[in-house]
Each structure stands twice: as structure tokens, then as C-alpha cells.
Amino acid sequence: MKRRDFLRASALASLSAIYPGLHPGISGWAYSSGKDSPGSKKLVVIFLRGAADGLNVVIPYGDPAYYNARPTIAVARPGETDGALDLDGHFGLHPQLEPLMKYWQDGSLAFVHCSGSPDPTRSHFDAQDYMESGCPGRKVVSSGWLNRLLTVLPSTRSSIRAINVGSTMPRILQGPVSVASFAPARAGRPSVADRPFISAAFEKMYAARDDSLGVAFREGMESHRTLKSKFDQEMTAANKGAPQAANFKGFGSQLGKLFGEDRTTQVAFVALGGWDTHVNQGAGKGQLANHLGVLGKGLADLARGLGPQYRDTVILVISEFGRTVNENGNGGTDHGHGNVMFVMGGGIRGGKVYGQWQGLDRGKLFEGRDLPVTTDFRSVIGQAAHEHMSIATADLGKILPDFQLTDRSMSAIFGA
After folding, report:
1. CB-based contact 206:8 (threshold 8 Å)
2. Which of 37, 223, 237, 403 could bond 159 through an S-S bridge, CB–CB 3.0 to 4.6 Å?
3. CA Rg, the chain, in Å?
4. How confident is the model at residue 212 (pLDDT cuts 50, 70, 90)?
């Protein structure tokens, strides 16, 4: 690392403790072999923390073993009360995801069943870490795959190339490229950076400096002011300035507005918690259904908010692992293995459930209890980077260093 880059990163690290929107990173021009203009293609990653139950999201209602394994929490067949929404005669969508059916029908929503990490861990901490670093099984990785993607995309010279919706920087966005964070829970009250006395003091100390610390300060404040101006107007009108932290639909519309107004923003990340349904999971209604209702409305709102940009955006919805095929004694499910991924966007080839579905017979299950992982989640990420973001094959190793994109089956999602 060059001395100037080191000083700049150090300055951002120091200021991040005081200014919530500042996080360590280095911004600047980065070589890319991509063919699209900077910012023209966008990627949004939504992480469902806690391990969402993919079998009750994209439901194999055509397999009798599903209902045998889940006598109280199975989602009913299409046409029944609170039943699944038919997708293809075998799979159905949870009824609370009904707002997404129009995207399935217009071919801009697909699912990849039996997908996930090849690492067998059932630890939330490890599995999330591996999925965000893009290096399953490796505990010491200094950056996340989404930040590494930015290093091979053409820089837009924007203060907000990447946005994280959350109060802390997730592993997936850690790395050399600067990322702007927006903490929705603080949106209704001034942050430290917005307090006039403190802001004026730091302006006096750093704003006029020409060294790396001064540059880092000005760039960080620019990010903070831009994000604040984008979000404050909608939040104030909708809820008298209070944040909609418990309602993802609000964040979907805000992200869509941000992308629609600023073509230089390239990636965004949102994490949603509460998917660890060991007890009282429910079926067509209940705990999981409530979470899925928020997710479905939020995704639909994001798609609408993107407007014409939707055709240039891919939205990935991922979770660290799936859950057991059989329900447990508490009306819930335990930590599993294979899961389902969402792929959504105007340029994909949707209206299909992808992946190698092998059924729910015990002999086909991972360790006799879980869905197997027949599609490595990195195959989907790699194809999204290659086909959608126009990253050359030679550069994919910089994003997913331990992975070779040999499985080309996922390329069909992106029209290749």
C-alpha cells in the first residue's frame, strides 16, 4: 500500500469513531475490464440473517414428503386457505410473497433451490462470515466479496459508490474501497456529525487541510451530507422524521430513490434479522410469514423505486444456510444446510426455479436431515459479476479467490 493510501485509510479509521457515516477505505480509480460505463450496472445484496427456511419460501408442494416432514408448519397447497402461490406445477411461493408474483410472471424473478455454502457449519457466525467473505472455510479473510467487486469495477468518482444500510460495517463490504453507511435507526434524531458545535469544531480542525487527513474528512462529510439529504425528506414526510427501522418497505423505496437519482452508486447492502425460527415458525401465517410479508413488500417497493434503473439492476437475496427438512418438537425448524436464493432484476431470465432439485427422500438429503447444496452460492455471485457487471473471467479470481467458475449452469439466469 502506498504511503498516501495508508494515511488516508488511517484518517478515515480515526474519524469513523466520531462520524457514523465514515468507514475505513480507499477510494479512487480502479482498473476494470468491464465494458459498461461506470455506474450503469448495479447490484443490491439483501442478507437474511438467522437462516431463513427456504423450504417454506419456495415450497415443493408437489412432493408428498414435504407434508409428511412438516405436519404443522407446511404451507398448504395452492388453492387452499393460506396456500402457496403456484410457480410451475411443483413449486409454490409463500403467500406472503404475493407482491413478487408480478416479477415472476414478467420473467424478472428467479430462484435457485438447494443453493448455499459448501462448508457444513451450522454456526450462524461462521456461516455468515464465510458467505460475506466469499471464502467458505477460511476464518481469516480481511475483506468481503462485495468490496472486492468494487475494486475491479470502473470507479465513478462518486462519494457513494457503495451504500450499507446499517449502523455497523458488515464483513461483505469491508475492504479497500470506501463505503458510505446509513444507520436508519438514527434517522429521526441528529447524529454526532450533525451537531453544530461538534461539526464546526471538526470543520475548523480539518476542512482547510490539504493532507490526507483533510481529504478524508471532506470526502466523508460529503458522503454523510449526500445520504442525509436523500433520506431525510422521505422519512420526515412518512413518519414525522422518525425512522422506519422495523419496516423494510421504507428502506426499499429509499434505496430505489437513491439509485434512481444517482447513477454513480454501484452496489448496496441491506441485512434483515429475525429468521432463526426454532420455535413457532408458523405456516401460511405466523412468525416466518410476518417476516416474509415485510420482505416481499420491500423488494417490490425497491423494484418500483428503481424505475428504468430496474433493467440494469440485479438484486440477490441470500441467507447463511437453510433449515432442517423435518420440523422439530417446538413447531419450528433447526439449523440446516441447503437453502434458496432469490435473483431479481430487469435483465435476468426469470420465471424459473433453477438448481438441481433431488427431492426430499431421506437418501437424497445432506446427513439424512437437510437439503443438500447442489449449487455453490459463489456460482450465482460469479455469474452475476461476469454476465451482469461485465467483469472479465480473469478478474473473477480477485472477487472469489478460492473459487473457479466451472459450473456454467447459472449463466442461464443472466441470459448467457
Report:
1. no
2. 223
3. 22
4. low
